[in-house]
Amino acid sequence: MVILLFDGVQSLTFSSPMDVLAEASTADFRYDIRTVSRNGRPVRSSSRLVVVPDMSHADVSEADTVIFPGADGIPSAYPETASILTARATRFASVCTGAFVLAETGVLNGRKAATHWRHAHELSLRHPAVKVDARNTVIRDGSVLTAGGVASGIELGLALIEEDLGRETAQRVARHLVTYVNRPGGQTQFATLRAKQAQHPAPREAQGRVLDRPAGELTVAALARHAGLSERHFTRRFRAQVGMSAKE
């Protein structure tokens, strides 16, 4: 397995699947995981952690799986490096906004994919051929697995273990880590925690529309139009009811 690292990578998005996969090791089996970067140089994570990769992307001749971690926001990784790695692998995975890097290679075209719910709309705008789903934490579509939020890297690791070694092994690892193989509720439950539910029907319907159609047109202007209110009126009412800006 190969994990692409780049400056600004969010450390939890690559360390969590690595740690989970390591837990599956037995006397007879161990995942061979290599971290790579452009030219093999150290990278600095979003939390200022300096990580020394195992090798350069050019040193990878073949790989069973390539994992694309995310960043604190939309990553600006190396598209040529990502394309080289995907050409040398048979299975692909991403964590959080790593889906943007994977989408740049064309691998996600025509496939259903997860990313962080906050960035789902942007992913669908940039890559309309991708069927973005922000409700689930992990989505498998053929040879591609994508995970939603930052901590979903744990579930991605468990999904890979289940695919490779069976559900019993995945459950054993999950029990050891005191977590779920499939977290109940998906990402939606976390998205709704950010704001209280509005009592007025217009902003309440707008909240429901965001959760039901995360890849749809979710600008303030579009939501106001759907609610039958002027943008200014909608914005004032939303803030009064929810306690935060509709842009958030």
Descriptive notes:
With 248 residues, the chain is of the alpha/beta class. Helix content is 39%, strand content 15%. The protein has helices at residues 11-23, 79-87, 98-104, 120-126, 153-165, 167-177, 188-191, 201-212, 220-227, 231-242; strands spanning 2-4, 34-37, 43-44, 50-51, 55-56, 63-68, 89-95, 112-113, 131-132, 138-141, 144-147.
Question: What topology emerges from the helices and strands here?
Answer:
Blueprint: E1 2-4, H1 11-23, E2 34-37, E3 43-44, E4 50-51, E5 55-56, E6 63-68, H2 79-87, E7 89-95, H3 98-104, E8 112-113, H4 120-126, E9 131-132, E10 138-141, E11 144-147, H5 153-165, H6 167-177, H7 188-191, H8 201-212, H9 220-227, H10 231-242
Parallel strand pairs: 1-2, 1-6, 2-5, 6-7, 7-11, 8-9
Antiparallel strand pairs: 3-4, 10-11
Quick rundown:
It contains ten helices and eleven strands. By secondary structure, it is of the alpha/beta class. The longest helix has 13 residues, at 11-23.
Features:
single chain; 248 residues; alpha/beta; Rossmann fold; 7-stranded mixed sheet; two-stranded antiparallel sheet; 10 helices; 11 strands; 39% helix
Major sheet: 7 strands, mixed
Helix content: 25-40%
> Strands of the biggest beta sheet: in what spatial order?
5-2-1-6-7-11-10
Cα distance spanning the termini? 37 Å
What portion of the residues fall into strands of 2 or more residues?
A: 15-25%
Low-confidence stretches: none
Estimate the mean pLDDT confidence: 87
Reading the helices and strands in chain order gives EHEEEEEHEHEHEEEHHHHHH
CATH class type of the largest domain: Alpha Beta
Q: What's the total helix number?
A: 10
Q: What number of domains? A: 2
Q: What spatial form do the alpha-carbon principal axes imply?
A: globular
Q: Please name the CATH topology of the largest domain.
A: Rossmann fold
Structural class comes to alpha/beta
DSSP strand count: 11
CATH architectural designation of the largest domain: 3-Layer(aba) Sandwich
CATH superfamily (homologous) name of the largest domain: Class I glutamine amidotransferase (GATase) domain
Compute the gyration radius: what is it?
A: 19 Å
